[in-house]
Write a structure and sequence with these properties.
By secondary structure, this protein is α/β, with parallel strands linked by helices. It has helices spanning about 25-30, 85-95, 105-115, 120-130, 135-145, 145-170, 180-210, 225-235, 275-290, 340-355, 365-385, 390-405, 415-420, and strands at about 5, 15-20, 40-50, 55-65, 75-80, 100, 215-220, 250-255, 260-265, 295-300, 315-320. Helix content is about 45%, strand content about 15%. Bound molecules: guanosine-5'-diphosphate and magnesium ion.
Length: about 425
C-alpha cells in the first residue's frame, strides 16, 4: 500500500501548517528530510530538500504503527504556514518513491480499515469537522467518543446470546426445552428492541441539530415580519415597506442560537390577494409554516384568529412594541424591544427537544436501526406463538443482527464507504 501525504490543516496563510505522512514507509521517507526524533517525542529539525537546500525549520513528530490516527506509521511535519513553504514540502514528498498525495478522506479510510475508528465514528468525525454550532459539536463528539458504538456492541452481544439460546432449542424436542430458556430470549430481545426504539425516538431531533431547526415568522401583511427578521439576523436580509405584500418569496436566514443552528423564515403576509405572484408566495408561506419546528405569530392585537392552528411550541407575539404602552409584552423589530426575550423563548423551546444522550444522526443509521427494530418485533411476536417456531424466530433474529452489523460497519460496506468519504476534505 502506498505511503500517502497531505496537508492536514486548512490551506492558506497561517502561523503553522501540518503535513501528515502515513504508511509503512513513512519513517524511511521522512528520514530523507531530517534525522527523526524518537517515537512520541517532538524534534525541531531543519528540513532539507533532495538538493540539500533548506526547505524550512519545523517540528517533526513520529507515531508508531498501531498508535496513530490511521493505525499506520505516521510522521507529522509542523512547518511555517506559508503557501509556498507548504507547496515546496508537498512537492518534495511527491518526488519520493512509493509516496503520493492522499485522496480526500483517505487518512480516515485507513483509520477505519485498521480498526482505529468504526463507521459511525468516521461519520461523526466528518460531522465534527463540519460542526458550526456548540450543539452540533457536542453531538458529533459523543458519537466519535464511541458511546453509540458501545450501545451497538451491547445490542450485538445480547442478540448473539439470544440467537445461541434459540439455536440450542432447535435441537431439543418440545418436552426437553427448559421453560426459562424462552423467557431469557424474550427478555434479551425486548431489552434490545426497547433500547433501539429509545434511540430512534431521540433521533429525529438529533438530526435537526445537524441540519438545523426551522422557525417561521407568520402574520398578516405589514405587521412587521420582515423588520423582525432583519432585527434577529442583524442585517437587511428582507425588504421592508409599508406597502402590503412586499415580501413574496420565502426568505431564509441561518443563525446560531445559543449553540443551535436555526433557520428563520420570513414569509409573505397571509391574506386574500388578487396578485398571482403574491398568492404563490402565500401558499409557500403556508407550506413553510406547517413544516417549521416553531412558528412565531406576529399579531396586531391579542385574541385575533390565527391563520393556522397553533401548536404547543408556537409563540404568539404582539407587534410594534415601540408604539404600545410601556410594560405590555410585545416585540419590535424596529426598536429591538422584546427581540432577545423572543429569541430566548425560541432557544428554550428548541433546547427541550434536543437529546443530551446517545443518538443516531445519519439517515443510514436511522434506516438500519428501524429495520432491526422491525425484525426484533417480529421475533417477539414469534416467541409468543405456541408451539414456538424456533427456526423462524432465529432467522428473523439473524436478519436483525445483520441490519445492526450494517449500521456498525461490520459487514460489506464498500458502497457506503465511497459515499461517506466523498464528502471528506483533503488531508483528513
Ligand atoms: P411585513 O409585511 O410583516 O413584513 O412588515 P414590514 O416589516 O415590511 O413592515 C411594515 C411596515 O411597518 C414598515 O413601514 C415598517 O417600517 C413598519 N414596522 C415594522 N416593524 C415595526 C415596529 O416594530 N415598530 C414600528 N413602529 N413600525 C414597524
Ligand atoms: Mg415582509
Amino acid at each position: 500500500m502506498d505511503t500517502i501525504f497531505a496537508q492536514a490543516t486548512a490551506t492558506g496563510r497561517a502561523g503553522v501548517s501540518v503535513i501528515r505522512l502515513s504508511g509503512r514507509q513513512a519513517f524511511d521517507i521522512a528520514k530523507n528530510f531530517c534525522k527523526l526524533p524518537a517515537v512520541g517525542r517532538t524534534g525541531l529539525r531543519a528540513l532539507l530538500g533532495c538538493d540539500g537546500a533548506l526547505i524550512d525549520h519545523g517540528l517533526v513528530l513520529c507515531f508508531e504503527q498501531g498508535a496513530s490516527f490511521t493505525g499506520e506509521r505516521v510522521v507529522e511535519f509542523q512547518v511555517h504556514g506559508g503557501l509556498a513553504t507548504v507547496a515546496k514540502l508537498l512537492a518534495e514528498l511527491s518526488m519520493q518513491d512509493g509516496c503520493r498525495l492522499a485522496e480526500p478522506g483517505e487518512f480516515t479510510r485507513r483509520a477505519l480499515e485498521n480498526g482505529q475508528l468504526d463507521l459511525n465514528q468516521v461519520e461523526a468525525l466528518s460531522d465534527l469537522i463540519d460542526a458550526e454550532t456548540e450543539a452540533q459539536r457536542q453531538q458529533a463528539i459523543r458519537v466519535l467518543d464511541g458511546s453509540f458504538g458501545d450501545a451497538g456492541a451491547q445490542w450485538r452481544s445480547k442478540l448473539l446470546r439470544a440467537a445461541a439460546l434459540l439455536e440450542a432449542s432447535i435441537d431439543f424436542s418440545d418436552e426437553e426445552i427448559p421453560d426459562d430458556l424462552s423467557v431469557e430470549v424474550v427478555s434479551l430481545v425486548e431489552e434490545t428492541c426497547g433500547s433501539i426504539a429509545a434511540i430512534l425516538e431521540r433521533s429525529t431531533m438529533a438530526s435537526k441539530i445537524r441540519t438545523g431547526f426551522t422557525v417561521a415568522i407568520i402574520g398578516a401583511p405589514n405587521v412587521g415580519k420582515s423588520t423582525l427578521l432583519n432585527a434577529i439576523v442583524g442585517r437587511q436580509a428582507a425588504i421592508t415597506s409599508n406597502v402590503a405584500g412586499t415580501t413574496r418569496d420565502v426568505i431564509e436566514c441561518r443563525v446560531d442560537l445559543q449553540g443551535l443552528a436555526v433557520s428563520f423564515f420570513d414569509t409573505a403576509g397571509l391574506r386574500d390577494s388578487e396578485d398571482e405572484i403574491e398568492n404563490l408566495g402565500i401558499s409557500k408561506a403556508y407550506e413553510m409554516a406547517s413544516a417549521a419546528d416553531i412558528r412565531v405569530f406576529l399579531v396586531e392585537e391579542e385574541g385575533v384568529v390565527l391563520p393556522i392552528a397553533r401548536r404547543d411550541e408556537d409563540i404568539v407575539c404582539l407587534n410594534k412594541a415601540d408604539e404600545r404602552q410601556p410594560g405590555v409584552a410585545a416585540v419590535s423589530g424596529k426598536s429591538g424591544e422584546g427581540v432577545s426575550e423572543l429569541l430566548r423563548q425560541i432557544s428554550e423551546r428548541l433546547m427541550v427537544k434536543t437529546p443530551q444522550d446517545v443518538v443516531a444522526i445519519r439517515e443510514r443509521q436511522i434506516t438500519g436501526l428501524r429495520a432491526a427494530e422491525t425484525f426484533l418485533e417480529r421475533v417477539l411476536e414469534l416467541l409468543g406463538a405456541d408451539p414456538l417456531p424456533f427456526e423462524l424466530a432465529s432467522q428473523e433474529l439473524y436478519f436483525a443482527l445483520s441490519e445492526l452489523d450494517f449500521v456498525f460497519g461490520r459487514i460489506d460496506i464498500e458502497s457506503v464507504l465511497d459515499e461517506i468519504f466523498s464528502s471528506f476534505c483533503l488531508g483528513k
